[in-house]
Amino acid sequence: MKNLLKTIFLLFLFVLPSGCEDMDDNAVPSELAVKDFVWKGMNLYYLWQEDVPDLADDRFANQTDLNDFLADFETPEGLFSALRVNNSIDRFSVIYSDYDVLEGVLSGNTLNNGMDYGLKHINGTTNVFGWVRYIIPNSDAATKDIQRGDVFYAVNGIPLTDDNYRTLLFSSNETYTINLASYSIDSNDFVTITPNGQSVTLTKTPLAENPILLSTVINQGAHNVGYLMYNGFYSSYENQLNAAFGNFQAQNVTDLVLDLRYNSGGSVSTATKLASMITGQFTGQPFAKQQWNAKAQAYFESNNPGSLTNKFVGGLNSLNLNKVYILTSNSSASASELVINCLKPYINVVQIGDTTTGKNVGSVTLYDSPTFAKQDVNPRHKYAMQPIVLKIVDKNGFGDYTAGIIPTTLLPENLGNLGILGNVDEPLLNAAINQIIASGKRLPEVPNFIERDFTDAKAINPLRSEMYVERK
């Protein structure tokens, strides 16, 4: 990855939009500086650059023509949106007016009350209810009477709907009160949400979430089963991840259950290291391959083709497994899917749970600087972009799972029987353990109607479901 990012700097220095006779940055009026950064960054990096006519290399004859185009947009956000392909193709590119916030989200540092939740529709209507998936340790929610499985139907007394849930749950308000309810579903799959008069007030504070929520070893006869609930691929916690696998090694773990059901993604480099810790016998072999837009891809292939491949790395605490059990939900996305897809050519991946999100593309942070890195960034503003710039495939070139990766064993979470995370009786973990020890026990029956979340606490903020490459 280091070589890749060094190479991309050369791309910035030597590849300019063809057909533009004068794209001198000195000719950019100060009021257009941010928009100029947006267009030039998207022109160089955006994965679908060829599919956006206004990003064509010959779209503008010179800087003056580009300036006239940029002046028609009221905001950098409006321009950024206009330069993207439609949402059915690109659901994930984002722009931020403050790169400090962007960097915080990518590293797991957010303004957060510590309640991670999913949101569901009530009986196919636009009415919404939430359910608590887990509580982040050392958060405000960890000090309150709220736990996994609790259901809420309103915020500050206002019932949740499609029109207001973003404003009520993901606004600038640091404190809000959730109004709790009981949940029931009848034999006809009709859900009833009944307010119970209880409420909990939660306050957002700066919070660094350690993605390792649970790490333990479960002894099952001759099997020492490592269980790791891992909720984000954050590079700043790689030492803790390596230490967890060191503990697995010390306890002679024979089998691993990797719980990614609430993991919406993160660093490609960290995902590669996790895969290397699960295995260990494939050091130096290709784990994942990157596919960029045509001009970036051509440059890399001509000048540094090896930079397009992420390889298994050595020097880590590794288990040398030839089979892994991975728990998923429809919230498992991007780097989580990368691990599943790119391990499959090497070892047996047994996936238990629900079909994943279907995000096979990655991004990079672009700053307004000569190389689009943070060094020498424009001091007059703090805009930064996180556009989709690459698709990631396995060593054989397969990465077509935009409809999600289908589990080996379909077992969606059931609000009527969630269980305690990490407990051997929790349905998904229990299903994995029973397969490991070949108990012969039947799986819980999958209902005819699967009541999936339509969004969750992380997906509401698109940046929290990014898969990204990092600058070194």
- Provide the CATH top-level class of the largest domain: Alpha Beta
Number of helices: 11
Tally of distinct domains? 3
- Please report the distance between the alpha carbons of the first and last residues: 8 Å
By CATH, the topology of the largest domain is: 2-enoyl-CoA Hydratase, Chain A, domain 1
Structural class: alpha+beta
Biggest β-sheet strands, sense, barrel? 7 strands, antiparallel
**Unreliable stretches, pLDDT < 50, 5 or more residues?**
1-21
Architecture per CATH nomenclature, i.e. the level-2 architecture of the largest domain: Alpha-Beta Complex
Can you describe what's shown?
The protein is α+β, with helices and mostly antiparallel strands. It folds into three domains: 2-90, no CATH class; 111-208, PDZ domain (Pdz3 Domain); 212-447 and 464-468, 2-enoyl-CoA Hydratase, Chain A, domain 1 (Alpha-Beta Complex). The chain is built from eleven helices and 24 strands. The strands form six sheets. Strands 3, 4, 5, 6, 7, 8 and 23 form a seven-stranded antiparallel beta sheet that branches. A six-stranded mixed beta sheet has the order 10-11-12-16-17-22, sandwiched between helices. A hairpin with a 2-residue loop joins strand 5 (151-155) and strand 6 (158-159). Helix 1 (2-14) crosses helix 9, helix 7 runs parallel beside helix 8 and helix 8 (268-278) packs across helix 10 (335-343). It is globular and about 70 Å long. Mean pLDDT is 90; it is low at 1-21.
